[in-house]
Amino acid sequence: MDSKHPAGRLPEPPNPIADDGDETHFCGTCAFSSACIAAGYNKPELAQLQCLVEHVGPFRAGEHIFRTGDPFRAIFAVRSGTVKTRMVDKEGREQVLGFYLPGEVIGLNAIYPEHFPCDAVALDTSFFCRFSFPAMSALASRIPAVQKHLFRLLSKELGSASLLAGDHSADERMAAFLMDLAGRYAARGFSATRFHLSMSRGDIANYLRLAAETVSRVLSRFRSQNLIRIEGRELELLNPDALRQLGQALLPD
Amino acid sequence: MDSKHPAGRLPEPPNPIADDGDETHFCGTCAFSSACIAAGYNKPELAQLQCLVEHVGPFRAGEHIFRTGDPFRAIFAVRSGTVKTRMVDKEGREQVLGFYLPGEVIGLNAIYPEHFPCDAVALDTSFFCRFSFPAMSALASRIPAVQKHLFRLLSKELGSASLLAGDHSADERMAAFLMDLAGRYAARGFSATRFHLSMSRGDIANYLRLAAETVSRVLSRFRSQNLIRIEGRELELLNPDALRQLGQALLPD
DNA sequence: CGTAAATTTGATTGGTCTCAACTTTCGTGG
DNA sequence: CCACGAAAGTTGAGACCAATCAAATTTACG
After folding, report:
1. What angle do CA B75, B198, B15 make, to 5 degrees?
2. Is A48 helix (H, G, I), strand (E, B) or coil?
3. Where in the cell (chains A, B) (predicted)?
4. Chain B interface mutation, best of A84, A109, A116, highest count of B Cβ atoms under 10 Å
5. CATH code for A165-250?
6. pLDDT tens digits, A192-241
7. What mean pLDDT is reported for chain B?
8. Using CB atoms, which residue from B152, B154, B164 is nearest to A164?
9. Disruptive mutation site among B151, B156, B215 for chain A (greatest number of A CBs within 10 Å)
């Protein structure tokens, strides 16, 4: 054990799987929470919002939430678990487009083409809130706050392409990736310094446009620099400031 | 003259600057056309749509349409000219996010942050239709087709990040870039095989995450392979099929 | 417990960047 | 109209980071 830390094993991090028994907490951290609140928990409109939501799942690791070419009928908020979206070109090469954590929304890029342009694959056992898009649009017409919320969701996703931008080194991209995940977990109320990487090294590499071997090497280097602790897919950020510094060119602010 | 083609100079391509005297044609190719049509050219709503549109310009090459941090109040449809959007990090390094041609819309990524997250810089003398976003939202609430159109615009832009995706060779990225431009010009009624590159080699390189020298080398190679003719910024695609083939991994379908 | 998949680590290769020099284009003013 | 300087673009040579190839090891799972 070359780690300077006492424990031989990383303790289990808090499991970022929403408690099905705690609707209020989950909804409070969901990307739709402000829309739901705007609709009014105590107004008749809420009933309509509830109407168009359907809880779906579980999906096991590797199962598809939707597939490329499926007709677009709904968007999905991740309720628990993790999802990757990906495209597969005709030579069979996979391209990972993004990872989605509890509270985040998938499927928005299907509105225009009216068919899903990518696959969504569960990385963990996952549950979702399914929002019928026609019903959601109709509601948005009647409740400006819901419309505004949808515009904001779409616009927000437009701004999140920056991890891939620029010709940055493997270290910069990896540091930015870890800090991005940390920030997104923190935004949903989970630990920002200890979490589980639901995706494989290969998926991370693919997403960051690196080779899987490079991801492994960078993580090893970060560990030897005491920037992180990592055992398998359990991660602890030991020096978030240094990581933020490393990835600053790719991170917001 | 090492070219096998008879003419010593490339003829001037059709100038993709909308004819101000031909409103109908421009609006027919604008990204908002279907919204305008949906609003109904002969209904009272059209008056409202006209109300919230303001023609702005000219902006000369190098002038800003908006700057990072400006409060978000409107989106802009390019009426004529070309625009690049870019972010500048605190070390002063520029990152080109995209190029926008006549009929395309800029500013959508500012809805969520409520401030523009990037600069928009004219590459040509340019004119715009400015759409007040609050007014547009209000109209969208009353006219479902307008709302739908905004959703589609936003979603479409989500799907257009693919040129940057993947770790592809300089040749693949350049070929895909040229074919993407060609397709977008064609969609607006301009020539798909002869057009002017309004952006510098440096801007192309930055956008494609290459060095300017690499862009220059790739274009020279394409020329020597008779895939293109290029003189300065005047471009002719001599073998679009081969270029599409080269860039297929990055192009839709 | 055994096999396949994932991960780590090492050695080598290669494509693109960097540095550098030169040419061309463009805008400006004499 | 031409001269001039600055910016943009081209081309070459060498260096370097990450990809690829290869192999050992660990982990996951039936």
Report:
1. 90
2. helix
3. Cytoplasm
4. A109
5. 1.10.10.10
6. 999 999 999 999 999 999 999 999 999 999 999 999 999 999 999 999 99
7. 85
8. B164
9. B151
Q: Is the pLDDT of residue A72 over 90?
A: yes
HEC string of chain B equals CCCCCCCCCCCCCCCCECCCCCHHHHHHHCCCHHHHHHHCCCCHHHHHHHHHEEEEEEECCCCEEECCCCECCEEEEEEECCEEEEEECCCCCEEEEEEECCCCEECHHHCCCCECCCEEEECCCEEEEEEEHHHHHHHHHHCHHHHHHHHHHHHHHHHHHHHHCCCCCHHHHHHHHHHHHHHHHHHCCCCCCEEECCCCHHHHHHHHCCCHHHHHHHHHHHHHCCCEEEECCEEEECCHHHHHHHHHHHCCC
CATH fold of A23-162: Jelly Rolls (2.60.120)
Q: Which of residues 88-107 of B touch A (CB under 8 A)?
A: 89-91, 93, 95, 97
Smallest Cβ distance to B108: which of A112, A155, A249? A155
Q: Do B209 and A167 touch (CB under 8 A)?
A: yes
Q: From CA A73, how far away is CA B100, in angstroms rounded?
A: 30
Structural domain boundaries of chain A? 23-162, 165-250
Q: Which fold has domain B23-161?
A: Jelly Rolls (2.60.120)
Q: Which of A111, A141, A167 sits opposite B155 (nearest CB)?
A: A111
Side chain identity at residue A69, one-letter code: G
Same fold, B23-161 and B165-250: no
Chain B CB within 8 Å of residue A154 CB? yes
Residues of A in contact with B210 (CB under 8 A): 167
What is the tens place of the pLDDT at every residue in B74-113?
999 999 999 999 999 888 889 999 999 999 999 999 999 9
Residue owning tokens 């969609």: B187
